[in-house]
Amino acid sequence: MRLALTLASRNLFHDRLRFIATLVGIVFSVVLVMIQMGLFLGFGQMVTTMIDHATADLWVVPKGAKCFEDPSLLDARLANRVRNVDGVAGVVPLVIGFSDWRQESGEMTPVFMVGVDLREPGLQPWNIVDGTVEALSERGALAVDRSYFDRLGVNGVGSTAEIRGKRVKVAAVTDRIRSFTTTPYVFVDLKNARMYTGAPPDRASNLLVRLKQGTDPEKVAQSIRAEVGDAEVLTNGEFQSRSRSFWLFGTGAGAALFAGALLGVIVGTIIVAQTLYSSTKDHLGEFATLRAMGSSNSYIYNVIIYQGVLNAVIGFCVAAAIGLVVVEATARSALPIVITPSLMAGLSALTLIMCVISAIGAIFRVVRTDPATVFMR
Prior knowledge:
The protein is of the alpha+beta class. 50% of the residues lie in helices and 18% in strands. The protein is built from twelve helices and twelve strands.
């Protein structure tokens, strides 16, 4: 085996130009798949970022609500019924919706309002780098992310603008709370959220339910369903899954990302297969010599497969390095690329399989070579 590996490495590195071409094909396909899947994971995380950061064990949502951003409303008075359910520690109404932000220059920008009662745990802004959450209880106060300063025409705490003709002031600044739709999130108090979105006083977008410690979420959810009529009761996991399914598959975004990843695998496999086949064909004389000397087919198979494995290891290492650079470069973008350890492990296995399959294609050419051809040269 040691000799087979040595022979494979020398055969692979003998023609450096061909080796570089093979490496480029592998790196291209792996990086393409890595970026596509990284976008898929990043997109999946961004569509549930609000749900992930909410202090809630259960969500009461309007019937048929497809995601967190769904504009449907429910009766806010249901909160009183939910509070009386055994096992419930607290209920916080949430009001969300789109509104228009008017800069000092008069330019209009759409924003997405997020409002809860800031006196209770619910969905408060996180990663605050300037100002305080408590300041948002003041009339006209709000929190924005600093990545949207240019878009909103502000420069920090104290900056002013208008929403629906009402004067507003930035009272807190967050970092890296971005919307996957590129519409800026704006955090406000519950009363201000109703005023800025036009929601009636007796309506809410969702109810955030906190449970007492040690209670069974599914059992409490069943009890709440009996009290809220047509409204739906979802756990955090169920609401996350529903939101991801809608944005990734209901809109076709997920299919497009998967198609790009599949294209990368196909293109990479074809490039590697062609290069390995061409390399093997150029060395048919050497392989015929090995067979004439009595080398078994399994030994020759090992040499060719080792070539594929070496290509896979080197190509994946280069692609992984490029992937890490891309992750760092997109960390503060509107849609960051997320590469998890499980994704890296899966890509390493995919690269190995892709290269081994390509090597098997070259094996078929070798086994059809007559060892006697070495004596006819």
